[in-house]
Design goal:
alpha+beta
């Protein structure tokens, strides 16, 4: 490191003060007397340019262990992000005077911290920081991926065009590949799997853009929580509902997902979403009046269904008449702030992403626990390639109504499944290993709980 300061001493003389050495050492200290302030600034500028040519990079600090007492006292006026501070070796201790439950505070910190980490891991921020990434760039990226999708669906034979599209994409969305040198074959968008993951990344980057304003605030835990527009409370672990959700999570784990390791629930958070609930209840009541009653319970739920804590009588009747069952939805941790601040939204037609085998106009996919985990950020997750110790799942009440049983992949729409209200892709029968449930209106979903899960791999 090399530290340089221009100081006016108590004798009114101008001094150029430098400290340099290995990181962690006290370093060599030197003073130079300057003719005046102007002379000192010129000399300092020469030194900075010389050091920059040798590879030194100027950094802004939030704390310093070297320099004069005056210089160190001025450091607090400089501000850098928490992630950048950690990169240069500082341990950040945030003073929080929040009155939020400590588990809710940790939840919010985890979500917003995940957004910053996702951007660092995904984008080449030296070429394009999040603040410089525009929604226009993101939409252009989607358009390029759609072009590639058409070629892939036609057999992916036009390699030249796919290379050109891929090159334009990476110029538009600079990606962080670390020190790994990738071959053209690896970078080319020539399979549905590669395209699915690229679409998913763009969705998360857009969500990060939406959360950017509260990301840059210092000690912003309350501001971040407020931006969610959703009151959150911790469910007591002694509550019968907590115990049943825990059973639901473990009993609906698929045998083919053993690679996820031993999983456990750390916390369950209850959500209050009044506006969403009103739209949902209106939809449910309408379905209940149109012969959409339940015909069958999925096999995984049958052993535990009668042991669930019952709701009030009116809602229980609606659950039967509109076929409401609790289902999980998994997504990257970085996506939670955006979803909670608005809603779980259907994709626009054409923007097909991972696992979307059964919708032709954008649908909402739900399933059981381990299926959903594979879309989370938890280590071992298949679709998102997560590496986090924790993952988060939504547990929703989903109004399925009468169900179209899929025979295989097909572009279903609400119109072509009429009078049904959802699609049930049965594991082992519909082209998938595990059950999937797809609805085609956002009002058929009520986000009720968030499950915090960890694994012991």
């Amino acid at each position: 490191y090399y530290n340089i300061e221009l100081i006016q001493g108590s004798d009114d003389k101008i001094y150029l003060y430098t400290v340099y050495g290995r990181v962690g050492a006290s370093g060599v200290k030197e003073y130079r007397v300057c003719l005046d302030k102007n002379d000192g600034e010129k000399e300092a500028e020469k030194i900075i340019k010389a050091k920059s040519k040798k590879g030194y990079q100027e950094v802004k600090l939030v704390a310093a262990s070297v320099g004069s007492d005056i210089g160190k006292s001025k450091i607090e006026n400089n501000v850098i992000s928490e992630s950048d501070a950690k990169k240069i070796g500082f341990s950040i201790k945030e003073e929080s005077r929040s009155n939020l439950n400590i588990e809710v505070q940790n939840l919010v910190k985890s979500w917003f911290g995940s957004i910053e980490q996702f951007v660092i891991n995904t984008m080449d921020t030296s070429k394009c920081a999040l603040g410089q990434l525009s929604l226009e760039q993101i939409n252009k990226g989607r358009d390029l991926l759609l072009e590639a999708r058409k070629i892939v669906l036609a057999g992916a034979k036009d390699i030249t065009t796919l290379n050109n599209i891929s090159s334009k994409y990476y110029s538009n969305i600079p990606m962080n590949f670390g020190n790994k040198k990738l071959k053209t074959d690896e970078l080319r968008f020539d399979t549905n799997d590669k395209l699915d993951k690229a679409f998913d990344i763009l969705d998360t980057l857009q969500n990060a853009k939406d959360a950017e304003k509260v990301l840059i605030k210092k000690n912003a835990i309350d501001e971040q929580y407020a931006s969610l527009n959703t009151p959150i409370e911790v469910l007591d672990k002694k509550d019968p509902l907590y115990k049943w959700i825990d059973i639901l999570f473990h009993k609906t784990r698929a045998s083919n997902h053993n690679f996820l390791g031993k999983m456990k629930i750390n916390n369950i958070f209850k959500l209050s979403r009044e506006s969403e609930y009103k739209d949902y209840i209106s939809m449910v009541e309408n379905m209940a009046n149109k012969n959409q009653s339940r015909e069958d319970i999925p096999d995984m739920l049958k052993p535990i269904w009668n042991n669930r804590p019952l709701e009030n009588k009116i809602y229980e009747e609606l659950c039967y008449k509109s076929n409401i069952i609790p289902l999980f939805h998994g997504t990257r941790t970085a996506n939670f702030p955006k979803i909670l601040s608005s809603k779980l939204m259907m994709r626009k037609p054409g923007f097909t992403v991972a696992g979307a085998m059964y919708d032709g106009e954008g649908g909402l996919y739900f399933g059981f626990s381990s299926k959903a985990i594979n879309y989370s950020s938890m280590a071992g997750s298949y679709w998102s390639g997560g590496n986090s110790e924790k993952g988060y799942l939504f547990l929703s009440d989903v109004a399925l109504g009468k169900q179209k049983i899929a025979n295989g992949a097909y572009p279903f729409t609400l119109k072509n499944i009429n009078p049904n209200m959802s699609v049930w892709a049965k594991g082992g029968k519909s082209g998938v290993i595990n059950d999937e449930f797809i609805v085609f209106t956002e009002k058929q979903n009520w986000l009720r709980y968030i499950i915090e899960v960890s694994n012991e791999r």
